[in-house]
């Protein structure tokens, strides 16, 4: 009987050794399956809603007034000009000698730069500087003398954003400094009136 039990146990061991061993899952297969499951779980993108029409140019008015660095400049009341120079380098914020401001809302982008340039009568170099090779001048350059300031203005095509494709840029002298201003807007006819309104409220000293 002992021999029978021993033989039976040996047969069971042999059968167990011959049966197929469970395979270890392939990690690459598991990763692929996880990625597929994740992608399948992501909801499909919903279509963007139709854009709301921008307000007409007459709704933009520069009743706000920014006064710092010994000059004042008009801006839309719902837009706050912030110091770009300080944001880029907290150790070198804007000052009387030079600086950069910007403001943005859903309908406008405005940028203002300035620097000391005693005796400069031609501010066109500042116009080139604010356009930064990313904006295209449209039409003729307008040159005017406004309150003893040499002023230049040009319409521009903005290439930085497709949302605000139009705009304008101007430059002018005031005392020992030269200033430049740029706006991106949704309509071509918006920029020039904004420049005129801004300049009408501009003072330096």
Characterise this structure:
The protein is an alpha+beta fold. It is built from 5 helices and 10 strands; from the N terminus they run ααβββαββαββββαβ. It has helices at 2-18, 27-41, 84-88, 124-131, 191-200, and strands at residues 64-68, 71-75, 82-83, 98-104, 109-116, 135-146, 149-158, 166-174, 177-185, 203-204. The strands form 2 sheets. It has a 7-stranded antiparallel sheet with strand order 3-4-5-9-8-7-6, with helices on both faces. A 3-stranded antiparallel sheet has the order 1-2-10. Strand 4 and strand 5 (109-116) form a beta hairpin. It is globular. The termini are far apart. 23% of the residues are buried. The model is unreliable at 1-22 and 26-59 (pLDDT under 50).
* Topology order in helix (H) and strand (E) letters: HHEEEHEEHEEEEHE
Secondary-structure class: alpha+beta
Rounded mean pLDDT score = 77
Distinct helical segment count: 5
Number of strands: 10
Could you give a short account of the major beta sheet?
A: 7 strands, antiparallel
What is the alpha-carbon Rg in Å?
Answer: 34 Å
**Multimerization state:** single chain
Fraction of residues in β-strands: 25-35%
Spatial strand arrangement across the major sheet: 3-4-5-9-8-7-6
* Helix content estimate: 25-40%
Low-confidence stretches: 1-22, 26-59
Overall 3D geometry? globular
Report how far apart the termini are. 118 Å
């Amino acid at each position: 009987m002992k021999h029978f039990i021993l033989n039976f146990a040996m047969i069971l061991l042999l059968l167990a050794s011959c049966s197929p061993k469970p395979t270890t899952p392939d990690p690459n297969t598991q990763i692929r399956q996880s990625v597929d499951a994740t992608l399948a779980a992501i909801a499909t993108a919903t279509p963007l809603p139709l854009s709301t029409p921008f307000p007409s140019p007459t709704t933009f008015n520069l009743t706000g007034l920014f006064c710092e660095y010994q000059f004042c400049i008009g801006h839309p009341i719902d837009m706050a000009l912030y110091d770009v120079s300080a944001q880029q380098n907290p150790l070198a914020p804007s000052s009387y000698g030079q600086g950069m401001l910007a403001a943005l809302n859903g309908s406008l982008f405005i940028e203002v730069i300035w620097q000391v340039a005693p005796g400069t009568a031609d501010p066109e170099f500042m116009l080139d500087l604010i356009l930064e090779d990313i904006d295209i001048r449209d039409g003729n350059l307008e040159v005017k003398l406004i309150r003893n300031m040499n002023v230049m203005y040009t319409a521009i095509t903005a290439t930085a954003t497709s949302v605000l494709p139009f705009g304008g840029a101007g430059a002018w002298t005031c005392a020992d400094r030269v200033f430049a201003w740029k706006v991106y807007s949704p309509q071509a006819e918006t920029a020039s009136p904004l420049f005129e309104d801004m300049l009408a409220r501009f003072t330096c000293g």
